[in-house]
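Teaching soon. Got one?

===
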Amino acid sequence: MQLPGALLAALLVLVGIVSAMAMRPWRALPPAGPPWPWLAWCVLLPLLWSADRLGAMPVAQPLPGACLLLLMAGWPLATLALVPVAGLAAWLGDLGAAEAVERLLWLGLAPATLALALGAAVRHGLPRHLFVYILGRGFIVPVLANMAAGTAQALAQPLPAGLALEDLLIARWLAGWGDAILTGMIVAIFVAFRPQWLATYADRLYLPTRTGDPDDENRRR
């Protein structure tokens, strides 16, 4: 990895961390702490991020998993939680500090931030409906965010030995689709049974407003 690329990745990660800390997202946590699915997903992410190293297969692309964490915890908390995830992934995969920072950027911060922006567009541009959240934010947005981040990473970093750019792009797009399918399934289950585990979901945002609802009357004025 070239030094300018490493410094740029570190700078972008630092900006993201400082921005997340400035929002002080821990104030929104319940007294008992974050729900256990958040913690369970954070424990699993280091294994996903180091899968290529653990399996000694450069073409086996890590699953980002950041979009699901974003939906569960919100962008500020997800950003802060991804820092120890990157540290554990570096330890498991025997990664150098520079590579760990790049994985934090391309597998964590970049897809999560893109998913945040695309999710805001979905919420404000599409009708208020439950399936807009499940299919839009839970599946389509992660597909686009993962593919965009994977493409940017492939173009910004030197190619692994023995891999052509086209092969690497296909591998990262497939990993992005796989991650989005997993995210969509988990989000659908959570919406149906445990919506409180999704910090980005609220009935008032995605369920159609009932007749006579004060919010409906306010929009008509």
Q: What stands out?
A: The chain has one domain: 3-220. Residues 3-220 form one domain. Residues 211-221 have pLDDT under 50 and may be disordered. Residues 131 and 206 are 8 Å apart (CA to CA).
